[in-house]
Amino acid sequence: MSDKILTLKLLKESYGVCRLDNTETIPKWAKESDFFSITKTSDELSIVCSEEYIPSEIKCEKDWRILKIQGPLDFSLIGILSSISTILAQKGISIFAVSTYDTDYILIKDKDIDNAVESLTKERYEVI
User: Fold this and answer.
1) CB 78 within 8 A of CB 30
2) Are 77 and 45 in contact (CB under 8 A)?
3) Of 7, 39, 64, 107, which residue is least crowded by CB atoms under 10 Å?
């Protein structure tokens, strides 16, 4: 068997992807979890954070788990997200990706996480 391609770390918490109006300021609750991502566009304010901090009145899609690609990754690397998303797409698994300066985070619905880990492991990805 060939060496692993990349290592991914499965984060323990469950996360939510929230949508707020583009005129709203970043709420304090959004910055409470160890992992959070905030994107503002002319259309919306999107927040990804641990679902335990999300107020019940917020429009949100919950029950996401996160696979973190162990980095840092060099900007010259090509096709990392494409390769992973193709493997998962072939298994009918939807993803939501978040990229940072150092690495990529792949959100997968909790109901699909076991199938995702199994599928990636079969393709020589290590999941810890």
Assistant:
1) no
2) no
3) 39
Candidates 3.30.2130.10, 2.40.10.220, 3.20.20.70, 3.30.43.10; CATH matching 7-127: 3.30.2130.10
Q: How far apart are the C-alpha atoms of 7 and 5, rounded to whole Å?
A: 7
Host H or E run for residue 48? strand 44-50
- ∠ at Cα 103 (101, 109), nearest 5°? 125
- Tokens coding 76: 């010259």
- Type of residue numbered 120: L
Per-residue pLDDT tens digits for 52-62: 999 999 999 99
The two three-digit tokens of residue 124, written as one number: 């020589």
Q: How far is CA 55 from CA 1, 52, 61, 81, in A?
A: 47, 8, 12, 31
